[in-house]
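anyone seen this seq b4? input:
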Amino acid sequence: MAKYSQKAQDKIETVMNEYKHGKLKSGKGGKGGVVKSRKQAIAIGLSEARHEGDKVPKKKS
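predicted toks r here
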């Protein structure tokens, strides 16, 4: 059984590509600085996928 939906995987792939090329920004509307952490980039991708309603596991509290 897949952990993430295909759309969520595509979203994370897009975000990681932005991170790799130094174009991924943090914060509301990308007003923060450039993301330097791989874990933070993955978290942003999951958050965006979750916001779009894709199948993603719930956040760990």
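Helices lie at 6-20, 38-51. The radius of gyration is 12 Å. kinda curious what u guys think
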